[in-house]
Every structure is written in structure tokens, then in C-alpha cells.
Design goal:
Distance between the termini: 24 Å
Radius of gyration: 14 Å
Largest sheet: 10 strands, mixed
Number of helices: 4
Shape: globular
Helix content: 10-25%
Oligomer: single chain
Number of strands: 12
Order of helices and strands: HEEEHEEHEHEEEEEE
Structural class: alpha/beta
């Protein structure tokens, strides 16, 4: 599938596109991906992330605001495999992931701050489909996220 680069999108939509200033690592098997945004806000607890990736993704991108914590991974190989199976385009994690060697083999975009082999805690905490903010961008469910080697950009649904 041919996809326009994020840099070209920024040129075409200068003034309306938002660019995330956070520097992510590309960890999934797909480097370029895009789709409507769904969100989870959580802290070192991936219960809501797991439940969400187990539902039909319909080409969406799950943006996970983990508060920037690198203490525990919020996505690993099993959750990412669920994302592939359920039709998610990608996952952007403002936090850590694990199982990097396996993530690199999956047909899923995965961007994260880094890796940590520790699994998350399971308290059932987290907020689904609420606006989350990091890197100078507010990620609003229903807006469209575009990602590639150059970074992450968001176009509002009404743009």
C-alpha cells in the first residue's frame, strides 16, 4: 500500500496539522501507518490496553498515554498479536513496550519511548477514548494519526 509521507502531509496541511515533538522508537513490523485515533490513558497498568486491542480495530491507531513511564511495559508480543488479529493499524505508546524482537516481525505499527522487560501491573485502571496529550499534541478520538520514520502527526476530523 502506498502512503503519503508524514513530511508531505505536513507541507500540504501546514497550519492545521499537529506534529508530536516526542521522539519515538519504531518497534513494529510496519514503520508507516495511519488511521483514526482511539485512546487509552493509564499508568503502568495495561488492563484497558489489553481489552481494547482484543476488540475489532477497523484500521484504527491506539494511542496509549502511559505518562511517559519506562518502568513497566504497556504492550508486548501477545497484545500486539491481538492487535494484528483484530485489524488495528498501529499503537503509539507514550511509555514502554517489551518483546521488541517479536514486535519487529508483526504487521503492526508500534512506536514507543523505549522498552522494558517488566510486565505491567493489573489493577483494571485506565480511561478509554478520552483526549490525551503529550509531545505538544492533543490526541482526540476520531482524529486521524499518521506515522512514519519522520514522526507522528495528527489531523483533526473536521480539518
Amino acid at each position: 500500500m502506498s502512503q503519503i509521507s508524514v513530511a508531505d502531509l505536513c507541507d500540504q496541511h501546514e497550519g492545521t496539522i499537529e506534529v508530536c515533538e516526542t521522539q519515538f522508537r519504531d518497534l513494529g513490523g510496519k514503520i508507516a501507518f495511519s488511521g483514526p485515533i482511539r485512546t487509552v490513558r493509564c499508568h503502568e497498568d495495561n488492563s484497558v490496553v489489553k481489552a481494547t486491542l482484543a476488540t475489532p480495530g477497523q484500521g484504527c491507531v491506539l494511542v496509549v498515554d502511559g505518562g511517559g513511564s519506562l518502568h513497566r511495559a504497556l504492550v508486548g508480543d501477545m497484545l500486539a498479536a491481538d492487535g494484528v488479529k483484530n485489524g488495528w493499524a498501529g499503537v503509539v505508546v507514550f511509555g514502554a513496550v517489551r518483546d521488541a524482537a517479536v514486535l519487529a516481525t508483526l504487521d503492526l505499527g508500534v512506536k514507543a519511548l523505549g522498552t522494558n522487560p517488566m510486565r505491567s501491573v493489573k489493577r483494571g485502571d485506565g480511561d478509554l477514548d478520552v483526549p490525551v496529550a503529550f509531545g505538544g499534541v492533543i490526541f482526540t478520538p476520531g482524529d486521524t494519526l499518521f506515522a512514519d520514520q519522520d514522526g507522528v502527526a495528527v489531523l483533526a476530523a473536521d480539518a
